[in-house]
Write a structure and sequence with these properties.
By secondary structure, the protein is α+β, with helices and mostly antiparallel strands. It has one domain: PH-domain like (Roll), CATH 2.30.29.80. It has three helices and seven strands, in the order H-E-E-E-H-E-E-E-H-E. A seven-stranded mixed sheet has the order 4-5-6-3-2-1-7, with helices on one face. The longest helix is centred in the first third of the chain and has 21 residues. It is globular.
């Protein structure tokens, strides 16, 4: 199980690194699945910081944290703040350099606290992803790796 988890994390990181600068079209399938069960995963990255990612029922990453945390407890608090304040935070849709649509979630102080894990070919798919997160994140389970 641990080996599979590590392999999945490596694949996700590889995809994320490849997409972050390339601007390639990317539409996570879980992002448009109506009432799919979502899951927050808290994990430690390669530089030993704790991060979270939000996954869809199909295990695809829908959202990532805007930062890394030294303490796992602080990362968990970040997830809790997002879930408990989702109605007060603002989703912002924008077009990236590659002409893909992305979203970011901003706290009331303007800080970006989450962002889409990839780009969407059209604005409607990006907005569907936001709706899925709004509906599913408050009920999402949280697992710690």
């Amino acid at each position: 199980m641990l080996q599979r988890t590590l392999m999945v994390m490596a694949i996700v990181l590889t995809i994320w690194l490849g997409l972050s600068g390339a601007g390639a079209p990317f539409a996570p399938q879980g992002a448009v699945a109506g009432d799919a069960k979502l899951k927050f995963e808290i994990y430690q990255d390669s530089v030993k910081e704790y991060r979270w990612r939000l996954k869809g029922a199909d295990d695809k990453v829908l959202a990532t944290a805007g930062q890394g945390f030294v303490a796992k407890a602080d990362c968990r608090k970040s997830v809790d703040r997002i879930v408990n304040n989702l109605d007060k935070q603002k989703f912002e849709v924008y077009e990236d350099k590659g002409k893909d649509y992305r979203w970011r979630l901003k706290a009331t102080n303007g800080q970006v606290v989450a962002s889409s894990s990839g780009g969407y070919a059209n604005k409607a798919d990006c907005e569907k992803a936001i709706d899925t997160i709004k509906k599913g994140a408050p009920k999402a389970e949280v697992s710690e790796k």
